[in-house]
Specification:
This protein has helices spanning 25-33, 35-65, 78-95, 98-117, 119-124, 130-162, 176-179, 183-202, 205-226, 276-283, 298-326; strands at residues 234-239, 251-259, 264-266, 285-293. The chain is an alpha+beta fold. The protein folds into two domains: 25-231 and 298-326; 234-296, no CATH class. The chain has a four-stranded antiparallel beta sheet. A hairpin with a 4-residue loop joins strand 2 and strand 3. Helix 4 (98-117) runs antiparallel to helix 9, helix 6 runs antiparallel to helix 11 (298-326) and helix 8 (183-202) packs parallel to helix 11. The radius of gyration is 29 Å and the shape is elongated.
């Protein structure tokens, strides 16, 4: 009796090779580890830029309907001018909070969370040197903060410049100064570096986030108070009793009364006297003096502030890297 041999089993087709990853090594690990931050920053950049572009178009339509730029800025209806300034300042104030968010939610847990979850020990016990891993982590966080704030700051600055003199009112004390030019990027790099340093020292994510919020808020408040010292105010001298100086397109810092020789007195000098002129005559007061910053000083003041903030960020990064070479992660 013959037996038939079983039919050969069907050969399974070879599995198709998976699609090669565009990111490898530490780049892939960081993208996977911080994919939520990447998605949120990308969404904020795209949606924020689109919203500003839309608001810019709407604002220009309103201003053109008011016959600007054929009509000078100070001749346009104050309601229209104030509405344009309020829209710019409101979004600028919102952008000014971005650096604080980067410091608290990106910088502070960057190292602290990896320590708590054991990722730091796992990575550094593999073939990746600790110094290289730290440099990649720092570069990732700082690059993400710089790109996001850089794009949003550029679009916001373009929106502001499109409004011309209508958006020049009080650019120093509104959101414009902190949210355009290099200041927004430099502030984000500073707060992110501060959060990284605090997280590495405390080694716990939640306490590090709370302390970073406190320290960053104090630092930003100090910057806001001290920004008048970034440049020397200009002075406009006019006779007392004459027409008031035109100050709608400049940032007024202070007001004085003064003598012909240049000696200054407080603005309220002799104001409450029964005869102000008789009170001023012995003092030689004949002029009213306004101290102000012109719009052409804005760029220089922004770069000065950015330089200070970037210097502080470099100090924090250097201190963190120096400490991490000695301390265990």
């Amino acid at each position: 009796m013959t037996t038939s041999s079983p039919a050969p089993a069907a050969t399974r087709p070879a599995a198709a090779p998976g699609r090669p990853r565009r990111l490898r090594g530490l780049a892939w690990l960081l993208a996977r580890r911080h994919r939520t931050a990447l998605v949120l920053c990308a969404a904020a950049t795209v949606l924020g830029s689109a919203w500003m572009l839309y608001q810019r178009a709407v604002m220009l339509d309103v201003l053109h309907a008011a016959h600007w730029p054929a009509v000078p800025g100070d001749s346009i209806d104050p309601l229209v001018r104030n509405r344009a300034a309020e829209e710019l300042n409101s979004f600028g104030n919102a952008l000014a909070y971005l650096p604080l968010l980067f410091g608290v939610f990106l910088g502070a847990p960057l190292i602290a969370a990896d320590r708590e979850e054991g990722t730091a020990r796992l990575v550094t016990t593999q073939s990746v040197p600790r110094g290289r891993w730290l440099r990649w982590k720092l570069g990732f966080a700082l690059a993400l903060a710089a790109v996001t704030t850089g794009v949003l700051g550029l679009v916001y600055g373009w929106w502001w410049r499109s409004a011309g003199p209508l958006a020049a009112a009080d650019w120093l004390n509104g959101g414009l100064f902190a949210s355009s030019g290099p200041v927004l990027v430099a502030t984000a790099l500073f707060t992110t570096s501060l959060g990284i340093a605090v997280g590495a020292l405390l080694r716990r994510a939640v306490p590090a986030m709370a302390l970073t919020f406190l320290l960053s808020g104090m630092a930003l408040f100090a910057c806001d108070v001290l920004k008048d010292g970034l440049a020397t105010p200009r002075r406009l001298v006019t006779p007392i009793g004459g027409p008031p100086p035109r100050t709608w397109d400049v940032v007024q810092v202070d007001q004085w009364v003064g003598t012909a020789s240049g000696r200054l007195y407080g603005w309220s000098t002799c104001v409450h006297d029964a005869s102000p002129d008789s009170c001023r005559a012995p003092l030689g007061i004949v002029n009213q003096v306004a101290e102000y910053f012109g719009q052409d000083q804005m760029a220089g003041m922004q770069w000065t502030a950015a330089g200070i903030l970037l210097g502080l960020a470099a100090v924090l990064v250097g201190a963190f890297l120096g400490w991490s070479r000695k301390g265990a992660l």
